[in-house]
Amino acid sequence: MRITDTSDLWWKTAVVYCLDVETFMDWNGDGVGDFEGLSHRIDYLAQLGITCIWLMPFYPTPDRDDGYDIVDFYDVDDRLGSLGDFVEFVRTANDRGIRVIADLVVNHTSDKHPWFRSARSSKDSPHRDFYVWRSDEPPDTSAEVVFPGEQEGIWEYDEKTKEYFLHRFYKHQPDLNVANPAVRDEIARIMGFWLQLGLAGFRVDAVPFFLETLGASEAEQQSFGDPHEYQRALRSFLGRRRGEAIMLGEVGLPYEEQMAYFGGVDGDELTMQFDFEAMEQMYLSLARQDARPLAETLRRRPEISREAQFATFVRNHDELHLGLLSEEEMQEVFAAFGPEERMQVYGRGLVRRLPPMLDGDPRRIRMVYSLMFALPGTPVLFYGEEIGMGENPDLDGRLAVRTPMQWSPDENAGFSTAPARKLVAPVVEGGFGPEHINVEDQRHDPDSLLNFVATLIRQFRESPEIGWGEYELLDQPHDAVLAHRCSWQGSSVIALHNFAAEPCTVPLELKSLDGDAVLVDLLQPGRTPLEEGRAELTLDGYGYRWLRISRPDELRLA
Ligand code: NOJ
User: What is this structure's pTM?
Assistant: First the structure.
Protein backbone atom coordinates (compact mmCIF):
# COMPACT_ATOMS: atom_id res chain seq x y z
CA MET A 1 0.00 0.00 0.00
CA ARG A 2 1.43 3.39 -0.99
CA ILE A 3 0.39 5.46 2.01
CA THR A 4 2.04 8.56 0.52
CA ASP A 5 -0.68 8.69 -2.16
CA THR A 6 -3.06 9.83 0.54
CA SER A 7 -1.31 13.17 0.86
CA ASP A 8 -1.58 13.75 -2.86
CA LEU A 9 -5.33 13.28 -3.37
CA TRP A 10 -5.96 14.45 0.19
CA TRP A 11 -9.74 14.67 -0.14
CA LYS A 12 -10.12 10.92 -0.60
CA THR A 13 -9.28 10.24 3.03
CA ALA A 14 -10.33 13.58 4.50
CA VAL A 15 -12.78 13.92 7.36
CA VAL A 16 -14.87 17.00 6.64
CA TYR A 17 -16.61 18.98 9.40
CA CYS A 18 -19.31 21.45 8.40
CA LEU A 19 -20.07 24.39 10.66
CA ASP A 20 -21.64 27.80 10.61
CA VAL A 21 -19.40 30.41 12.24
CA GLU A 22 -22.44 32.20 13.69
CA THR A 23 -23.60 29.21 15.75
CA PHE A 24 -20.24 27.69 16.69
CA MET A 25 -18.55 29.88 19.33
CA ASP A 26 -19.15 33.49 20.35
CA TRP A 27 -15.98 35.12 21.65
CA ASN A 28 -17.08 38.74 22.02
CA GLY A 29 -20.27 38.05 23.94
CA ASP A 30 -22.72 39.59 21.46
CA GLY A 31 -24.72 36.40 21.01
CA VAL A 32 -23.35 35.62 17.55
CA GLY A 33 -20.53 33.16 16.89
CA ASP A 34 -17.41 34.64 15.34
CA PHE A 35 -14.10 33.75 13.70
CA GLU A 36 -12.23 34.43 16.89
CA GLY A 37 -14.41 31.94 18.75
CA LEU A 38 -13.91 29.39 16.01
CA SER A 39 -10.16 29.89 16.16
CA HIS A 40 -10.31 29.14 19.87
CA ARG A 41 -11.98 25.84 19.06
CA ILE A 42 -9.56 24.66 16.38
CA ASP A 43 -7.69 22.51 18.87
CA TYR A 44 -10.94 20.82 19.83
CA LEU A 45 -11.50 19.96 16.17
CA ALA A 46 -7.88 18.90 15.69
CA GLN A 47 -8.15 16.53 18.63
CA LEU A 48 -11.36 15.12 17.27
CA GLY A 49 -9.26 14.30 14.24
CA ILE A 50 -11.12 16.06 11.45
CA THR A 51 -8.92 17.25 8.57
CA CYS A 52 -11.07 19.73 6.67
CA ILE A 53 -13.50 22.40 7.84
CA TRP A 54 -16.37 23.35 5.53
CA LEU A 55 -17.55 26.85 6.42
CA MET A 56 -21.16 27.63 5.65
CA PRO A 57 -21.60 31.14 4.16
CA PHE A 58 -19.92 33.83 6.26
CA TYR A 59 -20.25 36.68 3.76
CA PRO A 60 -22.20 39.92 4.36
CA THR A 61 -25.86 39.04 4.21
CA PRO A 62 -29.33 40.21 5.20
CA ASP A 63 -29.58 36.64 6.52
CA ARG A 64 -32.96 35.71 5.12
CA ASP A 65 -31.65 32.30 4.04
CA ASP A 66 -29.07 31.77 6.76
CA GLY A 67 -26.33 33.49 4.79
CA TYR A 68 -27.08 31.80 1.45
CA ASP A 69 -28.27 35.26 0.41
CA ILE A 70 -25.08 37.24 -0.16
CA VAL A 71 -24.59 40.98 -0.66
CA ASP A 72 -20.81 41.01 -1.02
CA PHE A 73 -18.79 38.03 -2.21
CA TYR A 74 -15.48 39.60 -1.17
CA ASP A 75 -15.93 40.18 2.54
CA VAL A 76 -16.81 38.71 5.92
CA ASP A 77 -20.09 39.63 7.60
CA ASP A 78 -19.37 42.22 10.31
CA ARG A 79 -21.11 40.17 12.96
CA LEU A 80 -18.59 37.33 12.48
CA GLY A 81 -15.37 39.34 12.36
CA SER A 82 -13.15 40.76 9.66
CA LEU A 83 -11.13 39.49 6.73
CA GLY A 84 -8.17 39.69 9.08
CA ASP A 85 -9.87 37.32 11.52
CA PHE A 86 -10.66 35.00 8.63
CA VAL A 87 -7.04 34.81 7.49
CA GLU A 88 -5.79 34.24 11.05
CA PHE A 89 -8.31 31.44 11.44
CA VAL A 90 -7.29 29.73 8.18
CA ARG A 91 -3.64 30.00 9.11
CA THR A 92 -4.22 28.52 12.55
CA ALA A 93 -6.33 25.69 11.14
CA ASN A 94 -3.62 24.91 8.61
CA ASP A 95 -1.05 24.86 11.40
CA ARG A 96 -3.08 22.08 13.05
CA GLY A 97 -3.19 20.12 9.78
CA ILE A 98 -6.72 21.21 8.91
CA ARG A 99 -7.67 22.53 5.48
CA VAL A 100 -10.57 24.93 5.04
CA ILE A 101 -13.18 24.99 2.29
CA ALA A 102 -16.23 27.26 2.12
CA ASP A 103 -19.58 27.54 0.45
CA LEU A 104 -19.46 29.04 -3.02
CA VAL A 105 -22.96 30.36 -3.57
CA VAL A 106 -23.05 31.77 -7.08
CA ASN A 107 -26.35 30.49 -8.42
CA HIS A 108 -27.91 33.63 -6.98
CA THR A 109 -27.30 36.72 -4.89
CA SER A 110 -29.41 38.50 -2.31
CA ASP A 111 -31.82 41.02 -3.84
CA LYS A 112 -29.91 43.55 -1.71
CA HIS A 113 -26.66 42.86 -3.59
CA PRO A 114 -25.44 46.06 -5.34
CA TRP A 115 -25.50 44.18 -8.67
CA PHE A 116 -29.19 43.46 -8.29
CA ARG A 117 -30.01 46.90 -6.95
CA SER A 118 -28.39 48.31 -10.05
CA ALA A 119 -29.99 45.69 -12.33
CA ARG A 120 -33.49 46.46 -11.16
CA SER A 121 -32.99 50.23 -11.23
CA SER A 122 -33.20 50.35 -15.04
CA LYS A 123 -33.21 48.11 -18.08
CA ASP A 124 -30.07 49.96 -19.18
CA SER A 125 -28.14 49.14 -16.04
CA PRO A 126 -24.69 47.65 -16.72
CA HIS A 127 -25.75 44.86 -14.36
CA ARG A 128 -29.11 44.17 -15.97
CA ASP A 129 -27.80 41.04 -17.72
CA PHE A 130 -26.17 39.75 -14.57
CA TYR A 131 -29.64 38.37 -13.86
CA VAL A 132 -32.26 36.54 -15.89
CA TRP A 133 -35.28 38.57 -17.04
CA ARG A 134 -38.39 37.94 -19.07
CA SER A 135 -40.97 40.43 -20.24
CA ASP A 136 -43.90 38.10 -20.90
CA GLU A 137 -46.00 36.72 -18.12
CA PRO A 138 -44.59 33.38 -16.94
CA PRO A 139 -46.74 30.26 -16.80
CA ASP A 140 -47.68 28.72 -13.46
CA THR A 141 -44.38 27.46 -12.01
CA SER A 142 -45.67 26.50 -8.58
CA ALA A 143 -44.70 22.87 -9.23
CA GLU A 144 -41.07 23.83 -9.91
CA VAL A 145 -40.27 25.55 -6.62
CA VAL A 146 -37.54 24.23 -4.32
CA PHE A 147 -39.30 25.34 -1.14
CA PRO A 148 -43.00 24.46 -1.50
CA GLY A 149 -45.07 26.39 0.98
CA GLU A 150 -42.45 29.16 1.21
CA GLN A 151 -42.27 30.02 -2.47
CA GLU A 152 -45.01 30.41 -5.08
CA GLY A 153 -43.15 30.28 -8.36
CA ILE A 154 -39.69 30.83 -9.83
CA TRP A 155 -40.35 34.20 -11.52
CA GLU A 156 -40.99 37.43 -9.64
CA TYR A 157 -42.39 40.63 -11.10
CA ASP A 158 -40.29 43.74 -10.69
CA GLU A 159 -42.51 46.81 -10.44
CA LYS A 160 -39.92 49.35 -11.50
CA THR A 161 -38.78 47.83 -14.78
CA LYS A 162 -41.94 45.80 -15.40
CA GLU A 163 -40.22 42.51 -16.09
CA TYR A 164 -39.93 39.21 -14.26
CA PHE A 165 -36.65 37.89 -12.81
CA LEU A 166 -35.73 34.25 -12.24
CA HIS A 167 -35.24 32.93 -8.72
CA ARG A 168 -34.83 29.19 -8.28
CA PHE A 169 -34.90 29.66 -4.51
CA TYR A 170 -36.64 32.40 -2.48
CA LYS A 171 -37.85 35.47 -4.32
CA HIS A 172 -35.26 37.54 -2.48
CA GLN A 173 -32.55 35.43 -4.18
CA PRO A 174 -32.42 36.41 -7.88
CA ASP A 175 -30.52 33.92 -10.03
CA LEU A 176 -27.30 35.07 -11.64
CA ASN A 177 -27.08 34.68 -15.40
CA VAL A 178 -24.19 32.27 -15.89
CA ALA A 179 -24.56 32.57 -19.67
CA ASN A 180 -23.23 36.12 -19.34
CA PRO A 181 -19.40 36.14 -19.64
CA ALA A 182 -19.18 39.08 -17.23
CA VAL A 183 -20.85 36.95 -14.54
CA ARG A 184 -18.44 34.11 -15.23
CA ASP A 185 -15.52 36.52 -14.86
CA GLU A 186 -16.85 37.57 -11.47
CA ILE A 187 -17.24 33.94 -10.36
CA ALA A 188 -13.63 33.23 -11.25
CA ARG A 189 -12.55 36.37 -9.41
CA ILE A 190 -14.48 35.32 -6.31
CA MET A 191 -12.89 31.89 -6.35
CA GLY A 192 -9.46 33.35 -6.96
CA PHE A 193 -9.90 35.79 -4.08
CA TRP A 194 -10.69 33.15 -1.47
CA LEU A 195 -8.09 30.72 -2.79
CA GLN A 196 -5.54 33.48 -2.41
CA LEU A 197 -6.66 33.92 1.20
CA GLY A 198 -6.02 30.26 1.87
CA LEU A 199 -9.12 28.22 1.05
CA ALA A 200 -8.47 24.68 -0.18
CA GLY A 201 -11.62 24.68 -2.28
CA PHE A 202 -15.35 25.07 -2.19
CA ARG A 203 -18.60 23.37 -1.40
CA VAL A 204 -20.48 24.45 -4.48
CA ASP A 205 -24.09 25.33 -3.76
CA ALA A 206 -26.95 24.11 -5.95
CA VAL A 207 -24.78 23.03 -8.88
CA PRO A 208 -27.48 21.96 -11.38
CA PHE A 209 -29.28 25.30 -11.00
CA PHE A 210 -26.03 27.24 -11.09
CA LEU A 211 -25.08 25.67 -14.44
CA GLU A 212 -28.49 25.89 -16.10
CA THR A 213 -29.29 28.62 -18.61
CA LEU A 214 -33.06 28.71 -18.21
CA GLY A 215 -34.35 32.08 -19.37
CA ALA A 216 -31.12 33.24 -21.01
CA SER A 217 -31.39 34.61 -24.54
CA GLU A 218 -30.86 32.33 -27.51
CA ALA A 219 -27.66 34.18 -28.41
CA GLU A 220 -26.31 33.88 -24.87
CA GLN A 221 -27.14 30.19 -24.73
CA GLN A 222 -25.37 29.60 -28.02
CA SER A 223 -22.22 31.38 -27.00
CA PHE A 224 -22.28 29.69 -23.57
CA GLY A 225 -22.53 26.24 -25.13
CA ASP A 226 -22.39 23.11 -23.00
CA PRO A 227 -22.62 23.98 -19.28
CA HIS A 228 -20.29 21.06 -18.54
CA GLU A 229 -17.60 22.71 -20.68
CA TYR A 230 -17.92 25.66 -18.33
CA GLN A 231 -17.70 23.46 -15.25
CA ARG A 232 -14.61 21.83 -16.73
CA ALA A 233 -13.10 25.27 -17.30
CA LEU A 234 -13.84 26.24 -13.68
CA ARG A 235 -12.16 23.09 -12.43
CA SER A 236 -9.03 23.80 -14.43
CA PHE A 237 -9.02 27.41 -13.28
CA LEU A 238 -9.22 26.14 -9.70
CA GLY A 239 -6.31 23.79 -10.35
CA ARG A 240 -4.21 26.54 -11.88
CA ARG A 241 -4.80 28.84 -8.93
CA ARG A 242 -4.27 26.14 -6.32
CA GLY A 243 -3.36 22.67 -7.45
CA GLU A 244 -4.73 20.81 -4.47
CA ALA A 245 -8.06 22.65 -4.27
CA ILE A 246 -11.34 20.81 -4.60
CA MET A 247 -14.93 21.43 -5.62
CA LEU A 248 -17.40 19.48 -3.49
CA GLY A 249 -20.69 19.88 -5.30
CA GLU A 250 -24.24 19.80 -4.04
CA VAL A 251 -26.03 17.74 -6.69
CA GLY A 252 -29.06 16.11 -5.09
CA LEU A 253 -29.78 13.86 -8.06
CA PRO A 254 -29.71 10.12 -8.82
CA TYR A 255 -26.35 8.53 -9.59
CA GLU A 256 -26.84 8.46 -13.37
CA GLU A 257 -27.29 12.21 -13.42
CA GLN A 258 -24.47 12.83 -10.97
CA MET A 259 -22.02 11.15 -13.34
CA ALA A 260 -22.23 14.05 -15.79
CA TYR A 261 -21.29 16.48 -12.98
CA PHE A 262 -18.18 14.45 -12.22
CA GLY A 263 -17.27 14.88 -15.88
CA GLY A 264 -18.06 11.28 -16.73
CA VAL A 265 -15.15 8.86 -16.89
CA ASP A 266 -12.68 11.71 -17.37
CA GLY A 267 -13.55 13.04 -13.93
CA ASP A 268 -12.53 16.58 -14.82
CA GLU A 269 -15.47 18.48 -13.32
CA LEU A 270 -16.55 18.27 -9.66
CA THR A 271 -13.94 16.63 -7.43
CA MET A 272 -16.57 15.33 -5.01
CA GLN A 273 -20.33 15.05 -4.73
CA PHE A 274 -22.52 14.21 -1.77
CA ASP A 275 -23.94 10.71 -2.00
CA PHE A 276 -27.62 11.57 -1.55
CA GLU A 277 -28.78 8.19 -2.85
CA ALA A 278 -26.89 6.15 -0.25
CA MET A 279 -27.85 8.58 2.52
CA GLU A 280 -31.57 8.34 1.75
CA GLN A 281 -31.51 4.57 1.32
CA MET A 282 -29.66 4.27 4.62
CA TYR A 283 -32.66 5.84 6.35
CA LEU A 284 -34.96 3.40 4.57
CA SER A 285 -32.74 0.57 5.81
CA LEU A 286 -32.88 1.98 9.33
CA ALA A 287 -36.66 2.29 9.18
CA ARG A 288 -37.06 -1.28 7.92
CA GLN A 289 -34.24 -2.73 10.04
CA ASP A 290 -33.14 -4.27 6.78
CA ALA A 291 -29.76 -3.53 5.18
CA ARG A 292 -30.83 -4.46 1.67
CA PRO A 293 -31.97 -1.04 0.39
CA LEU A 294 -28.54 0.38 1.24
CA ALA A 295 -26.71 -2.71 -0.04
CA GLU A 296 -28.53 -2.54 -3.37
CA THR A 297 -27.73 1.15 -3.66
CA LEU A 298 -24.04 0.56 -3.10
CA ARG A 299 -24.14 -2.22 -5.70
CA ARG A 300 -25.44 0.18 -8.32
CA ARG A 301 -23.30 3.13 -7.34
CA PRO A 302 -21.36 3.98 -10.50
CA GLU A 303 -17.64 3.73 -10.73
CA ILE A 304 -16.01 7.16 -10.79
CA SER A 305 -12.55 8.29 -11.82
CA ARG A 306 -9.55 7.80 -9.55
CA GLU A 307 -9.42 11.42 -8.46
CA ALA A 308 -13.15 11.83 -7.85
CA GLN A 309 -14.92 10.89 -4.65
CA PHE A 310 -18.34 10.51 -3.07
CA ALA A 311 -18.92 12.37 0.19
CA THR A 312 -20.93 10.31 2.68
CA PHE A 313 -23.11 11.94 5.30
CA VAL A 314 -25.87 11.28 7.79
CA ARG A 315 -27.27 14.80 8.24
CA ASN A 316 -26.55 18.26 6.96
CA HIS A 317 -27.80 21.80 7.63
CA ASP A 318 -30.86 21.36 5.40
CA GLU A 319 -33.85 19.11 5.81
CA LEU A 320 -33.17 15.37 5.76
CA HIS A 321 -33.86 15.11 2.04
CA LEU A 322 -35.80 12.01 1.03
CA GLY A 323 -36.85 13.09 -2.44
CA LEU A 324 -34.95 10.32 -4.21
CA LEU A 325 -37.05 7.64 -2.52
CA SER A 326 -40.40 6.56 -3.93
CA GLU A 327 -43.49 8.10 -2.30
CA GLU A 328 -44.19 4.88 -0.33
CA GLU A 329 -40.59 4.56 0.80
CA MET A 330 -40.57 8.18 1.93
CA GLN A 331 -43.77 7.61 3.90
CA GLU A 332 -42.11 4.64 5.60
CA VAL A 333 -39.22 6.82 6.72
CA PHE A 334 -41.63 9.57 7.82
CA ALA A 335 -43.62 7.05 9.85
CA ALA A 336 -40.48 5.71 11.54
CA PHE A 337 -38.59 8.94 12.16
CA GLY A 338 -40.87 11.94 11.76
CA PRO A 339 -44.54 11.01 12.07
CA GLU A 340 -45.70 14.45 13.21
CA GLU A 341 -46.47 17.06 10.62
CA ARG A 342 -44.23 19.67 12.28
CA MET A 343 -41.26 17.31 11.79
CA GLN A 344 -41.82 17.24 8.03
CA VAL A 345 -41.06 19.90 5.49
CA TYR A 346 -41.52 20.57 1.75
CA GLY A 347 -43.29 17.22 1.35
CA ARG A 348 -39.92 15.53 1.03
CA GLY A 349 -37.90 15.92 4.20
CA LEU A 350 -37.53 15.89 7.97
CA VAL A 351 -36.24 18.73 10.12
CA ARG A 352 -34.64 16.52 12.73
CA ARG A 353 -31.18 15.41 13.72
CA LEU A 354 -30.34 11.71 13.96
CA PRO A 355 -30.34 11.02 17.74
CA PRO A 356 -33.94 12.16 18.38
CA MET A 357 -35.05 10.20 15.32
CA LEU A 358 -33.55 7.10 16.93
CA ASP A 359 -35.09 7.96 20.32
CA GLY A 360 -31.60 8.54 21.63
CA ASP A 361 -30.76 4.82 21.44
CA PRO A 362 -26.96 4.84 21.83
CA ARG A 363 -26.55 1.48 20.11
CA ARG A 364 -28.27 2.63 16.95
CA ILE A 365 -26.62 6.06 16.96
CA ARG A 366 -23.18 4.46 17.18
CA MET A 367 -24.03 1.92 14.52
CA VAL A 368 -24.99 4.71 12.13
CA TYR A 369 -21.78 6.67 12.69
CA SER A 370 -19.68 3.54 12.45
CA LEU A 371 -21.41 2.92 9.13
CA MET A 372 -20.85 6.44 7.88
CA PHE A 373 -17.11 6.16 8.49
CA ALA A 374 -16.96 2.66 6.97
CA LEU A 375 -18.85 3.47 3.78
CA PRO A 376 -16.64 3.90 0.75
CA GLY A 377 -16.10 7.65 0.38
CA THR A 378 -15.17 10.73 2.40
CA PRO A 379 -17.25 11.28 5.56
CA VAL A 380 -18.77 14.70 6.24
CA LEU A 381 -19.93 15.57 9.75
CA PHE A 382 -22.33 18.39 10.60
CA TYR A 383 -21.27 20.22 13.79
CA GLY A 384 -22.65 18.69 16.96
CA GLU A 385 -23.12 15.23 15.47
CA GLU A 386 -20.02 14.07 17.31
CA ILE A 387 -21.77 14.66 20.65
CA GLY A 388 -25.25 13.58 19.55
CA MET A 389 -26.99 16.96 19.49
CA GLY A 390 -30.72 17.07 18.82
CA GLU A 391 -32.85 19.73 17.14
CA ASN A 392 -35.00 22.52 18.51
CA PRO A 393 -38.49 21.64 17.25
CA ASP A 394 -39.78 25.13 18.09
CA LEU A 395 -37.69 26.70 15.32
CA ASP A 396 -39.06 27.09 11.84
CA GLY A 397 -38.26 24.45 9.23
CA ARG A 398 -34.60 23.88 8.53
CA LEU A 399 -33.54 26.24 11.33
CA ALA A 400 -34.41 23.51 13.84
CA VAL A 401 -31.04 21.82 13.30
CA ARG A 402 -28.98 25.02 13.23
CA THR A 403 -28.86 25.75 16.97
CA PRO A 404 -25.75 26.82 18.94
CA MET A 405 -23.01 24.26 19.49
CA GLN A 406 -23.32 22.72 22.96
CA TRP A 407 -19.95 23.16 24.64
CA SER A 408 -20.90 22.83 28.30
CA PRO A 409 -23.87 22.36 30.64
CA ASP A 410 -23.67 26.06 31.54
CA GLU A 411 -25.83 29.00 30.52
CA ASN A 412 -26.31 29.18 26.73
CA ALA A 413 -24.53 25.83 26.40
CA GLY A 414 -21.23 27.67 26.89
CA PHE A 415 -21.65 29.09 23.38
CA SER A 416 -22.01 32.73 24.45
CA THR A 417 -22.05 34.98 27.51
CA ALA A 418 -24.78 37.18 26.00
CA PRO A 419 -28.26 37.19 27.54
CA ALA A 420 -30.21 34.24 26.09
CA ARG A 421 -32.61 36.55 24.23
CA LYS A 422 -29.69 37.92 22.22
CA LEU A 423 -28.46 34.57 20.90
CA VAL A 424 -28.43 34.11 17.15
CA ALA A 425 -30.58 31.02 17.70
CA PRO A 426 -32.05 29.53 20.86
CA VAL A 427 -30.29 26.60 22.46
CA VAL A 428 -31.93 23.15 22.37
CA GLU A 429 -34.04 22.37 25.43
CA GLY A 430 -35.13 19.12 27.06
CA GLY A 431 -33.49 15.73 26.85
CA PHE A 432 -31.06 16.79 24.13
CA GLY A 433 -30.30 20.12 25.81
CA PRO A 434 -26.84 21.10 27.04
CA GLU A 435 -27.40 19.74 30.57
CA HIS A 436 -27.36 16.28 29.02
CA ILE A 437 -25.44 16.67 25.76
CA ASN A 438 -22.28 18.75 25.75
CA VAL A 439 -18.60 18.62 24.84
CA GLU A 440 -17.22 19.26 28.31
CA ASP A 441 -18.84 16.24 29.94
CA GLN A 442 -18.10 13.95 27.02
CA ARG A 443 -14.44 14.91 26.88
CA HIS A 444 -13.99 13.44 30.33
CA ASP A 445 -15.99 10.31 29.68
CA PRO A 446 -14.02 7.59 27.88
CA ASP A 447 -17.28 5.90 26.82
CA SER A 448 -18.86 9.02 25.35
CA LEU A 449 -20.11 9.39 21.79
CA LEU A 450 -17.46 12.09 21.32
CA ASN A 451 -14.67 9.66 22.11
CA PHE A 452 -16.31 6.99 20.01
CA VAL A 453 -16.46 9.31 16.99
CA ALA A 454 -12.82 10.27 17.57
CA THR A 455 -11.96 6.56 17.47
CA LEU A 456 -13.89 6.12 14.24
CA ILE A 457 -12.04 9.06 12.73
CA ARG A 458 -8.69 7.64 13.78
CA GLN A 459 -9.47 4.23 12.33
CA PHE A 460 -10.86 5.75 9.15
CA ARG A 461 -7.68 7.79 8.70
CA GLU A 462 -5.57 4.69 9.31
CA SER A 463 -7.63 2.67 6.84
CA PRO A 464 -7.21 4.36 3.45
CA GLU A 465 -8.77 1.24 1.94
CA ILE A 466 -12.13 2.88 2.75
CA GLY A 467 -11.48 6.16 1.00
CA TRP A 468 -9.42 4.81 -1.89
CA GLY A 469 -10.31 1.22 -2.37
CA GLU A 470 -12.60 -0.84 -4.48
CA TYR A 471 -15.46 -2.25 -2.50
CA GLU A 472 -17.65 -5.31 -2.70
CA LEU A 473 -20.75 -6.40 -0.80
CA LEU A 474 -20.08 -9.72 0.91
CA ASP A 475 -22.60 -12.54 0.73
CA GLN A 476 -24.01 -13.61 4.07
CA PRO A 477 -27.43 -14.85 5.15
CA HIS A 478 -28.85 -11.96 7.26
CA ASP A 479 -31.04 -9.35 5.57
CA ALA A 480 -30.44 -6.99 8.47
CA VAL A 481 -26.67 -7.05 8.04
CA LEU A 482 -24.56 -4.98 5.68
CA ALA A 483 -21.21 -6.69 5.11
CA HIS A 484 -18.73 -5.02 2.83
CA ARG A 485 -15.07 -5.14 2.04
CA CYS A 486 -12.86 -2.27 0.89
CA SER A 487 -9.56 -3.25 -0.73
CA TRP A 488 -6.67 -1.13 -1.85
CA GLN A 489 -3.24 -2.18 -3.04
CA GLY A 490 -3.34 -5.62 -1.52
CA SER A 491 -4.91 -4.61 1.78
CA SER A 492 -8.53 -5.01 2.95
CA VAL A 493 -10.92 -3.78 5.62
CA ILE A 494 -14.20 -5.58 6.24
CA ALA A 495 -17.13 -3.87 7.93
CA LEU A 496 -20.24 -5.46 9.39
CA HIS A 497 -23.31 -3.48 10.46
CA ASN A 498 -26.44 -4.89 11.97
CA PHE A 499 -29.60 -2.84 11.36
CA ALA A 500 -31.74 -5.01 13.62
CA ALA A 501 -32.10 -5.46 17.38
CA GLU A 502 -31.41 -9.22 17.33
CA PRO A 503 -27.81 -10.34 17.70
CA CYS A 504 -26.53 -12.71 15.03
CA THR A 505 -23.55 -14.64 13.80
CA VAL A 506 -22.28 -13.75 10.35
CA PRO A 507 -20.50 -16.47 8.40
CA LEU A 508 -18.05 -15.00 5.93
CA GLU A 509 -16.15 -16.63 3.15
CA LEU A 510 -13.25 -14.59 1.88
CA LYS A 511 -11.84 -15.79 -1.36
CA SER A 512 -8.19 -16.09 -2.33
CA LEU A 513 -6.67 -15.79 1.11
CA ASP A 514 -3.67 -17.79 2.18
CA GLY A 515 -3.84 -19.99 5.28
CA ASP A 516 -2.19 -17.68 7.81
CA ALA A 517 -4.40 -14.61 7.52
CA VAL A 518 -6.45 -13.47 10.53
CA LEU A 519 -9.16 -10.87 10.98
CA VAL A 520 -8.08 -8.15 13.40
CA ASP A 521 -10.80 -6.06 15.02
CA LEU A 522 -10.24 -2.34 14.68
CA LEU A 523 -12.89 -0.97 17.07
CA GLN A 524 -12.36 -3.43 19.93
CA PRO A 525 -9.71 -5.92 20.95
CA GLY A 526 -9.94 -9.22 19.09
CA ARG A 527 -8.48 -11.48 16.42
CA THR A 528 -10.43 -14.11 14.52
CA PRO A 529 -8.49 -16.81 12.71
CA LEU A 530 -9.60 -17.68 9.20
CA GLU A 531 -9.96 -21.29 8.21
CA GLU A 532 -9.61 -21.70 4.49
CA GLY A 533 -10.83 -18.14 4.17
CA ARG A 534 -13.86 -18.75 6.39
CA ALA A 535 -14.83 -17.14 9.68
CA GLU A 536 -17.91 -16.78 11.87
CA LEU A 537 -18.32 -13.35 13.41
CA THR A 538 -20.79 -12.46 16.13
CA LEU A 539 -22.65 -9.17 16.01
CA ASP A 540 -24.70 -7.60 18.81
CA GLY A 541 -28.15 -6.18 18.14
CA TYR A 542 -27.38 -2.95 16.24
CA GLY A 543 -23.77 -4.10 16.41
CA TYR A 544 -20.88 -3.08 14.18
CA ARG A 545 -17.38 -4.38 13.58
CA TRP A 546 -14.47 -3.28 11.45
CA LEU A 547 -11.85 -5.93 10.71
CA ARG A 548 -8.58 -5.79 8.82
CA ILE A 549 -7.35 -8.85 7.02
CA SER A 550 -3.94 -9.26 8.52
CA ARG A 551 -1.17 -11.54 7.34
CA PRO A 552 1.70 -12.77 9.51
CA ASP A 553 4.09 -10.15 8.16
CA GLU A 554 1.60 -7.30 8.82
CA LEU A 555 3.32 -4.14 10.06
CA ARG A 556 0.27 -1.94 10.43
CA LEU A 557 -1.15 -0.92 13.78
CA ALA A 558 -4.40 -2.57 14.71
C1 NOJ B 1 -28.65 24.88 -0.85
C2 NOJ B 1 -28.31 25.13 0.57
O3 NOJ B 1 -27.85 23.93 1.15
C4 NOJ B 1 -29.55 25.67 1.24
O5 NOJ B 1 -29.36 25.78 2.62
C6 NOJ B 1 -29.91 26.99 0.63
O7 NOJ B 1 -31.12 27.45 1.16
C8 NOJ B 1 -30.07 26.87 -0.88
N9 NOJ B 1 -28.98 26.13 -1.48
C10 NOJ B 1 -30.10 28.21 -1.53
O11 NOJ B 1 -28.83 28.79 -1.49
Answer: 0.98
